[in-house]
Amino acid sequence: MSAEERQLRLPVDHHVHTPLCGHAEGAPRAYVVAADGLAGIGFSDHLPYLEPAKADPALAMSWDELPVYLDGIQRLKGKSATPVLLGIEADYFPGQETRLEAVLAALPLDYVCGAIHWVGDWPFDDSRHLRRYEGADVTALYRDYYRLVAEMARAGLFDLWAHPDLPKKFGYSPEETVRDAEDEALAAVAAARMVLEVNTSGLRKPVGEIYPSLELLRRARALGIPITFGSDAHAPYEVGHEFERAVAQAKEAGYRTYVTFLRRERITVPLP
Ligand code: ZN
Ligand code: FE
Ligand code: FE
Ligand code: ZN
Fold first, then answer.
1. Tens digit of pLDDT for each residue in 106-149?
2. Residue 220 is inside which H or E element, if any?
3. What are the CA-CA distances from residue 178 to residues 47, 146, 147 (Å)?
4. 144 C-alpha vs ligand 4 centroid, how far in Å?
5. What span, in angstroms and rounded, lies between the C-alpha atoms of 209 and 119?
6. What is the pTM of this model?
7. Residue 25: which CATH number?
8. How many angstroms does the Cα of residue 133 sit away from the middle of ligand 3?
9. Ligand 2 center to residue 2 CA distance, Å?
C-alpha cells in the first residue's frame, strides 16, 4: 500500500487478539479479511505471564504457543493487500523488567503494547473478579493504576500505552480527583517517548467510552504524546470497531497525525 493510499484509509488497527489467548475467537486470517478498508492490521495477543503462578489459559497463550503465534502472524504478512504487523500485548509488573527485556529482545516484533491489568493481586479488568469492586477503594485503585503506568513508562520497554484509563471499564469512577496521578503517568509516558493508544473497546464495555477520555487525550496532546489506534478485537467483527468515532475524538483533542510501527520504528501518518 502506498503512503498516499494509507493516509486516505481509516487508521491501522494495532490491537487485535487471536484464539491463543483463550478468550478470543476467529482465525487470524479472518481478522485480516475484516481489516479490509483499514490502513493495516497489527496483532497484539497477550504475552505469556513471566510469573508461573499467573499462568491462566483463559488470559494468555502459553510459552509453548508463543512460537505458534509469531510464525502464524509472520506467515500472514504479504499475503493480503492489507499490511499485517506483528506486535504483542505485554503486562508490566514491577521487578520483572530485566526478564521482560530479555524476552522481548528475542522476538521479531513491530511494536510492544504495554498494559496494566493488575493492581497488586487484583486483575481489575477481569470480569470474573467483578465482585471485588464491592466495598473496594476505587480512588486508590485509580491512583495505584496510574502509578504503575508511570513505572511502566520508566522501564523503557514498551512502544505504546494500551487502553489508557482502563480502571473505568466497569463504570466505577474515583470519588475524588486523581489528576495528580494521571499527570504523573502522562509525564512519564511523554518522557519515555511512548505512544498513547486510542482504544475503542471501552465502547463495548459498561463504561461505554473510548479509552482514554477526551479530557485525558487533550492533556496528552498538550504534552506532545503521539497516538495510535486499537479496537482490542477479540473476534473478527470487532476489527476497526468505531474507528470513525475514534478519529473524530482524536481530531477534537487537536491531533492531526497518528503513529504506526515497523520493526519497532515509528511511522507518522496523517489522520484521514
Ligand atoms: Zn484479551
Ligand atoms: Fe489489555
Ligand atoms: Fe488486548
Ligand atoms: Zn488489551
1. 999 999 999 999 999 999 999 999 999 999 999 999 999 999 99
2. helix 214-222
3. 30, 9, 11
4. 18
5. 22
6. 0.97
7. 3.20.20.140
8. 21
9. 31
Kind and range of the H or E run holding 180: helix 179-191
pLDDT tens per residue across span 171-200: 999 999 999 999 999 999 999 999 999 999
* Total structural domains within the chain: 1
Buried b (16+ CB within 10 A) or exposed e, 76-98: beeeeebbbbbbbbbbbbeebbe
The CA 30 to ligand 4 mean position distance, Å, reads 19
Structural domain including 40 reads 3-270
Q: Nearest bound ligand to CA 117?
A: 2
CA 266 to chain centre: 16
Question: If you ran DSSP here, which 8-state letter would residue 225 be given?
Answer: -
**What residues have their beta carbon closer than 5 A to ion ligand 3?**
89, 232
